[in-house]
């Protein structure tokens, strides 16, 4: 009986003990579970609820972190644009104001410069006309200014005045051969003089007086032969006269025109 009971207990224990599952059985069970989850969406939701919640929370947090800097960057950019527009408008206002001010100042300076140039021109004309005799005819005065310009080269103004006065005094003592009237400092009278004996002694105080005496006598002859006794006004024609270069021709073109004598009178 004891042997039989022990045998019965062994058989019952063997029947109660379940065998360990194999690897194939485990894989089949997992496949069946996956199939059941795929077929049943509620089961998939139940199994994967934690994962979906975690992923959704992480995505929302990332979305917030991504959206926040974009908003702040957009607002900062808009603010920068507004500031730039304001600054540009202010700068444009300043520029326009400064340009208008500069235009007024430039117009004033141009007007002042023109006035100064005209005043300087009138002073030059007055100076050069003072070398001639005020009561003489215009053509004689223009010839005297031409002679004074040649004497004035490398010579001071008071010396030129004295030299011109000596020349006028000399010709005032000379008489015309036809009617016996006194001569004047003109192209006709000067062209007949001897440079060394008649004119050079009158220019003794002038630098290079002998050379200038020859030049003014030759200049008077050029005026008679080339321009019919009238001093030309153009620079090119003036340079055809002996002793007159580019600088003197430029001065004479300004101060020795006929209209300058009429305006001064």
Your description of this structure?
The protein has twelve helices and no strands. The protein has helices at 2-16, 23-39, 41-47, 49-129, 138-152, 157-173, 187-191, 195-199, 209-227, 235-238, 246-255, 258-264. Residues 11-15, 35-39 and 45-49 have low confidence and may be disordered. The chain is mostly helical and 265 residues long.
Q: What is the element string, with H for helices and E for strands?
A: HHHHHHHHHHHH
Globally, the shape reads rod-shaped
First CA to last CA: what distance? 175 Å
Strand content: under 5%
Helix vs. strand class? mainly alpha
User: Which residue ranges are poorly predicted, with pLDDT under 50 across at least 5 consecutive positions?
Assistant: 11-15, 35-39, 45-49
Mean of the pLDDT scores? 77
* Helix count, DSSP H or I runs of 4 or more residues: 12
**Helix residue percentage:** over 70%
Largest sheet: none
Number of strands: 0
Radius of gyration of CA atoms, rounded to a whole number: 60 Å
What is this structure's SSE topology?
Elements lengths: L1 H15 L6 H17 L1 H7 L1 H81 L8 H15 L4 H17 L13 H5 L3 H5 L9 H19 L7 H4 L7 H10 L2 H7 L1
Give structural attributes.
single chain; 12 helices; 0% strand; mainly alpha
Task: Compose a concise summary of this entry.
By secondary structure, the protein is mostly helical.
């Amino acid at each position: 009986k004891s042997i039989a009971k022990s045998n019965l207990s062994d058989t019952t224990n063997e029947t109660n003990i379940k065998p360990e599952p194999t690897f194939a059985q485990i894989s089949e069970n997992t496949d069946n579970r996956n199939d059941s989850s795929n077929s049943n969406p509620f089961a998939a939701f139940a199994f994967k609820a934690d994962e979906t919640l975690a992923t959704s929370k992480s995505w929302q947090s990332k979305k917030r972190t991504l959206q926040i800097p974009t908003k702040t960057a957009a607002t900062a950019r808009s603010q920068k644009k507004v500031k730039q527009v304001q600054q540009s408008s202010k700068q444009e206002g300043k520029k326009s104001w400064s340009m208008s001010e500069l235009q007024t100042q430039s117009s004033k300076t141009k007007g002042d410069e023109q006035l100064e140039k005209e005043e300087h021109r009138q002073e030059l004309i007055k100076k050069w006309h003072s070398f001639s005799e005020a009561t003489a005819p215009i053509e004689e005065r223009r010839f005297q200014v031409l002679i004074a310009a040649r004497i004035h080269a490398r010579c001071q103004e008071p010396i030129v005045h004295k030299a011109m006065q000596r020349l006028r005094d000399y010709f005032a003592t000379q008489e015309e051969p036809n009617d016996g009237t006194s001569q004047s400092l003109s192209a006709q009278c000067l062209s007949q003089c001897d440079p060394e004996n008649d004119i050079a002694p009158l220019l003794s105080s002038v630098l290079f007086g002998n050379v200038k005496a020859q030049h003014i006598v030759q200049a008077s002859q050029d005026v008679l032969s080339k321009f019919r006794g009238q001093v030309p006004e153009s620079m090119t024609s003036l340079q055809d006269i002996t002793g007159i270069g580019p600088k003197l021709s430029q001065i004479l073109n300004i101060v020795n025109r006929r209209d300058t004598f009429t305006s001064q009178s």
